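Note to self: keep these together.
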Amino acid sequence: MLKVYAAKWCLHCTKTIEYLKNNKIEFEYFEIEKQSKNTIQKIIDVNGGDDWVVPTLEFNGKWREGKLYNEKELKTDLGQLGLK
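Structure:
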């Protein structure tokens, strides 16, 4: 299942989650600020090693770094992760 690491206060996270719901893509939501140090470190690594960026997505071991919301780009990236 798609994992979404996000923050409630993040507009780009909210829009990404709305997109997933509207397109009936199942996902698990993880509040970034409540994750373990190991999980946060992985997300930092996925995002270039400086800091965590949300929303960061993971599906079956494939990661999408945190990005500004762009519907077309999100759709393409989800396809590359193996989601429709």
